[in-house]
Specification:
It catalyses: 2 D-alanine + ATP = D-alanyl-D-alanine + ADP + phosphate + H(+). The chain contains ten helices and 13 strands. Strands 8, 9, 10, 11, 12 and 13 form a six-stranded antiparallel sheet that branches. It has a four-stranded antiparallel sheet with strand order 4-7-5-6, with helices on one face. The radius of gyration is 19 Å and the shape is globular. The protein is α+β, with helices and mostly antiparallel strands. It folds into three domains: 87 residues, Rossmann fold (3-Layer(aba) Sandwich), CATH 3.40.50; 66 residues, Dna Ligase, domain 1, CATH 3.30.1490; 122 residues, D-amino Acid Aminotransferase, Chain A, domain 1 (2-Layer Sandwich), CATH 3.30.470.20.
Length: 319
């Protein structure tokens, strides 16, 4: 991975907070990243777009933006487009890659077109959803279903259901977050995640939780979740998973850095869940754990992420 000296980055705005449902996580991620930049001698400051108009960046000396906004408004392409209009370089994926990865339904459709493995699914649209269809959906998807708002992160609005009655309740709850809801066949097996930084896959992580699934509390609040890195895969399976995750990330026009989540069934088959273009960077987050397993400190990881705002061959792919 290519790193730069702190002086080369100039003055950096760390974009954090925002007004999405993931604001609290974003604030934690942003503060951790800001502290790392300060430790490395980078001239950086916090910028919360929920507290200040974006045009303030035009009145400050800002050489680049490190985006630590999770969820809508920061991870869906809108902030990326605004920064491009302001001609301010930024970290991570561009407009297209951010928008595609944020939308779980479109992600699955693209992966399907490329014959990349992903679980069976259906779509519930708020405008024409019929409550009476829940029984047929359960039967079609194997009687155990994950319900996911299409454009939310951090497992917000998600539920695992095993009956038509539970499915209806979960869909109605998910409609509070999004007008389109992904209904996905549940894959019974371990969950893995692969981080990608500057085009390189880091060691995979296997997550284990006593919760019904790897939900918001398991990610950020409880101490019962276990993380295994090395994940216990054979060398061949580790390489196979790294190749799959990297291909899936790039298939959605992802670039710079990100993370791909995967399930594995009892037969050893991997199934893509989703891609994240601005993953969490808190003390419980997965990308720092994978970086540590690869021998990279948190501070070096932050500098590697910041480097994705530099020349095009390191940063986002042309769109």
């Amino acid at each position: 991975m290519k790193l730069y000296s702190p002086r080369e980055f100039g003055r950096v705005a760390v974009m954090l907070g925002g007004d999405s449902a993931e604001r609290a996580v974003s604030l934690n991620s942003g503060q951790a990243v800001l502290a790392a930049l300060h430790r490395q001698g980078v001239d950086a400051f916090a910028f919360d777009p929920a507290a200040r108009p974006l045009t303030d960046l035009s009145h400050e000396t800002v050489d680049r933006v490190l985006i630590m906004l999770h969820g809508r408004g920061g991870e869906d392409g809108s902030m990326q487009g605004a920064l491009q209009q302001l001609k301010i370089p930024y970290t991570g994926s561009g407009v297209l890659g951010s928008a595609l990865a944020m939308d779980k339904i479109h992600s699955k459709q693209i992966w399907q077109c490329l014959n990349l493995p992903t679980a069976k699914y259906q779509i519930a649209d708020k405008s024409d959803f019929e409550a009476g269809s829940c029984g047929a959906i359960m039967h079609e998807l194997g009687n155990e279903v994950m319900v996911k708002p299409s454009r939310e992160g951090s497992s917000i609005g998600m539920a695992r259901v095993t009956s038509a009655k539970q499915l209806l309740t979960a869909i109605q709850d998910a409609f509070k977050y999004d007008n389109q809801v992904l209904l996905e066949q549940y894959i019974d097996g371990p969950e893995y995640t692969v981080s990608v930084v500057q085009g390189e896959a880091l060691p995979s992580i296997r997550m284990s939780t006593p919760h019904t699934f790897y939900d918001y509390a398991a990610k950020y609040q409880d101490d019962t979740t276990e993380y295994f890195c090395p994940s216990g895969l054979s060398d061949d399976d580790e390489q196979r998973l790294a190749a799959l995750a990297t291909r899936a990330f790039h298939a959605l026009s992802g670039s710079g850095w990100g993370r791909v989540d995967v399930m594995r069934d009892a037969s050893g088959n991997f199934f893509l869940l989703e891609s994240n273009t601005v993953p969490g960077m808190t003390e419980k987050s997965l990308v720092p754990k994978a970086a540590s397993a690869a021998g990279m400190s948190f501070d070096d990881l932050v500098l590697a992420i910041l480097a994705t705002s530099m020349p095009a061959e390191i940063g986002r792919a042309a769109e």
